[in-house]
Design a protein that fits this description.
The protein has 118 residues and is mainly α. It contains four helices and no strands. It comes from Canis lupus familiaris.
């Protein structure tokens, strides 16, 4: 809503920015920040895990993980619809892939190129 009030932003630009900002925030909070914001009974075992790795006792395909995987897809489809599937807004697709790939079960606990390993 805030981006819609900026006069020189068109609807496709607003939808693309909304999609990219959402996916960037989701990536930072779910896949880069490690540890927990509160004291846990695990005695520091989750200190080196991201929130996505800690979620649902490391079980895959739970309802909360499915929701957090489907919500960027729905936002991507809405952004693609409002941009009229224009190739100039390829940033939507790149943003979607950058948030969905770390959620795959095959990449659970994997840190590419040693980034965010410690």
């Amino acid at each position: 809503v805030i981006l819609l009030h900026i006069p020189f932003f068109s609807m496709p630009v607003v939808c693309t920015l909304t999609n990219v900002i959402h996916n960037l925030a989701m990536y930072v909070f779910l896949h880069t920040v490690k540890g927990t914001p509160f004291e846990t009974p695990g005695q520091g075992k989750s200190q080196l895990l991201t929130h996505w790795e800690q979620m649902d006792f490391r079980l895959q395909f739970t309802s909360s993980r499915k929701f957090l995987s489907i919500s960027p897809i729905v936002l991507y489809l809405l952004a693609s619809f409002y941009t009229k599937y224009d190739a100039a807004y390829f940033l939507n697709t790149a943003s979607l892939l950058s948030i969905l790939l770390p959620k795959l079960p095959q990449l659970h606990g994997v840190h590419l190129f040693g980034i965010n390993k410690y």
